[in-house]
Amino acid sequence: MAHGTLGRLGSMLVGILAGAAVLVLTGGPAAAKTTLSVYTAIEADDLKKYAARFNEDYPDIEIKWTRDSTGVVTAKLLAEKANPQADVIWGLAATSLLVLKPEGMLVPYAPKGLEKLSAQFRDGASPPAWVGMDAWVAAICFNTAEAAKKNLPKPASWKDLTKPVYKGQVVMPHPASSGAGFVDVSSWLQLFGEAEGWKYMDALHENIAVYVHSGSKPCAMAGSGEYPIGVSFEFRAARQKKQGAPLDIVFPSEGSGWDMEATAIVKGTKNLEAAKTLVDWSVSEKAMKLYNEGYAVLAVPGIAKPIEFLPPNMLEHMAKNDFQWAATNRAKILAEWEKRYNTKAEKK
């Protein structure tokens, strides 16, 4: 009897364990995924790579991307303030997050590894409302082949771009749509002073062919020879050059404006723990090495390796940037810019 009972119990136990194994393998409750709605301005050709690297460590969190240019994403977030649709912002300009923070739209959170970040790559509050990832730096993409055909000299400074020889030869990003465009405009106002900055842009406007709604597009247009000069940023310039475009990458002598990509949790998320997990990962060493595949300046010092076609002293090319001033004055700057120059904006 006893042996028979034990045998039956053993068979039942084997059956229970087998059933549990099937439950896991067939995607029962143990395999349920959390889907995070992530808003971003990360370069579109890198989104799959970013999600895949994160999922190597957290396969149970699925990322659903909403991607557009910085200004468009910022406007979308502000429009959704009363009914947030995003859980996390992963890769948006710090100047945009400085606009969202006073609106009460971000969840303060101190991610694991926060102490390793450079001070300028995090919100100053404790806990911070946002944390940085990497920096992108303004640069001029100069097509040497097209320039030779048109007998155009290579510019060495921002001021050079106002010379009559470049009339109709320059494209740049629209600052209301593009984070790179806003960096250009806000940094010129800081580099030259506000009055001289607007005078500079008046002169530059004479040489602009079109203001496009993407920070990458001017460099792509220069790379393809559509226009000889594109005001863009170093990440896209180096990538275009690596793909064989006949580009010289110019960091203007006055200094280059820059901003950082940053991450934050959106207030109102129903997936707070998964959102915290993503933000933790976004400042990890693994994430920094991922960013370093395109960006030379990282939020955590000591990790970055040099990027092909970019100078090793990138920090020396970066002009001083008062992010808070740029964010506080963003609406006023954009309104003035559009009043003066929007006649040459690319049609949406």
Could you describe the 3D structure shown?
- The chain has 348 residues and is α/β, with parallel strands linked by helices.
- Helix content is 41%, strand content 18%.
- It is built from 14 helices and 11 strands.
- The protein has helices at 2-25, 47-57, 70-79, 94-100, 144-150, 179-192, 194-205, 217-224, 234-242, 272-282, 285-291, 314-317, 323-328, 330-341, and strands at 34-40, 61-67, 88-93, 106-107, 131-143, 170-173, 208-212, 229-233, 247-250, 258-266, 297-298.
- Strands 1, 2, 3, 4, 5, 6, 7, 8, 9, 10 and 11 form an 11-stranded mixed sheet that branches.
- Strand 1 (34-40), helix 2 (47-57) and strand 2 (61-67) form a beta-alpha-beta unit.
- Helix 6 (179-192) crosses helix 7.
- It starts with a helix and ends in a 7-residue tail after the last helix.
- 44% of the residues are buried.
What is the ordering of alpha helices and beta strands? HEHEHEHEEHEHHEHEHEEHHEHHH
Shape: globular
What's the end-to-end separation, in Å? 83 Å
The level of helicity is: 40-55%
